[in-house]
Amino acid sequence: MAKRYSAYGFLAFVSIGFVLYALVFNYIIDPEAEAFLRHKTGLKRELNLSTWLNVMYIHVGFACVALLAGLLNLSGRVLQKSRALHRANGYVYIVSVLVVVLTSGYMAPYATGGKASSMVFNAINMIWPFMTIMAILSIKKGRIVQHQNWMIRSYAFCFTNMVIHLIAALFHQGFGFTYVTSYTIGVYSSLALLLLIPEIIIRVRSRAQAAHH
pLDDT tens across 26-47, in order? Predict the structure, then answer.
């Protein structure tokens, strides 16, 4: 029990910290996204800056909502105290995911790294809603464990941006790769990690539950 709460506490710390960073950086420090856009060279589509920025603001805002809504619904206390809140917050999460995916679909053709990166973002834009829909269908059928597992898989993708930039920073600043190459490596690595890590968590979780029965 203590391990579970410490794991949730760590997740909450990371999630809230990343949300605060994303909001401050994207809306206050660099609202014109100059630091990010300077790496977008050789675009095949002309980028309409004002439209792209507005879409990015929506994308970041709803990504933060999805992160916090998902975090809240992973709390066992919330579920125990108020199923109505858990359900309502679940719908907030679903809507937020769909908005993030739609805005990502607009931004994908302009992704740093070109078509190589765009393909991965388009894949994520299909995988993430699929996992979220599977979570909905599972709970509609009363399959609680399957619902929880699909939500773990879905929630992992809330960290896509964070994982991409951490890996990109590692390869760019740590190993001296160009930023574009580093970012592309980050995009591919994030997809692999965000598919793998939830499966490990689900296995560990199921073994722990089996040990208590």
Answer: 999 999 999 888 877 667 677 8
Give this prediction's pTM: 0.93
Which three-class secondary structure state does DSSP give residue 91? Answer: helix
CA dist 182 and 44 (Å) reads: 20
Provide the Cα torsion 62, 66, 72, 76; round to 10°: 170
| Sequence-distant (≥ 6) Cβ neighbours of residue 154 within 8 angstroms | 70, 97, 128, 131, 132, 135
Identify the DSSP state of 74: T
The CA-atom distances, in angstroms, between 98 and each of 66, 110, 192 are 10, 20, 21
Whole-angstrom CA distances from 119 to 71, 75, 107, 167, 171 are 28, 34, 12, 18, 21
CA dihedral over 57, 13, 168, 186, signed as positive or negative? negative
* Phi/psi at 111 (5° precision): -60, 145
Task: Give per-residue pLDDT as tens, 157-169.
Answer: 999 999 999 999 9
Sequence-distant (≥ 6) Cβ neighbours of residue 161 within 8 angstroms: 22, 63
